[in-house]
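Subject: Sanity check before I submit

Could someone independently write out the structure tokens for this chain? I want to compare against mine line by line before I put it in a report. The sequence has 137 residues.
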Amino acid sequence: MKGLGRVGNYVAAASGVHIPLTNANAVTYITYLDAGTQVATIKSSIDGASEAALDCDVYPHKEPGVGGTWTAMAEQDDTLSLATDATNDCMVFTISAEQLPDGHNCVEVTVDGGICVAHIHDLTQSRKPANLPRNVV
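---
Independent answer below. Compare away.
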């Protein structure tokens, strides 16, 4: 095993899907919209049901999608926005399992356009890629 299954798991089209953090300690999202006007909304759920806005401290960073310097954004809660940023069109932010409310085990990020990729990391158990548990609900 090189990375997949040892370091983490991935969801290439992660917008609007519930990602369980039952077999991982965190998920990092990378979003991109060429126009740079992207808004990401974060929710938690119980196995994909009983959705609620995730009221936790998120410390996102932003950069031009073609590469550049990551810049810290102001601490935000359940909505992250690049709507007024003419330079940066990419965001990255991490949600840890301990940030979920009691009883909730999934994270859902929905973007209003563009790309949203999820890197599920700090796996509780390394596995061969073919033996990874389902990474969406």
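---
OP: Matches mine. For the report I'm noting this point. The CA atoms of residues 57 and 77 lie 5 Å apart.
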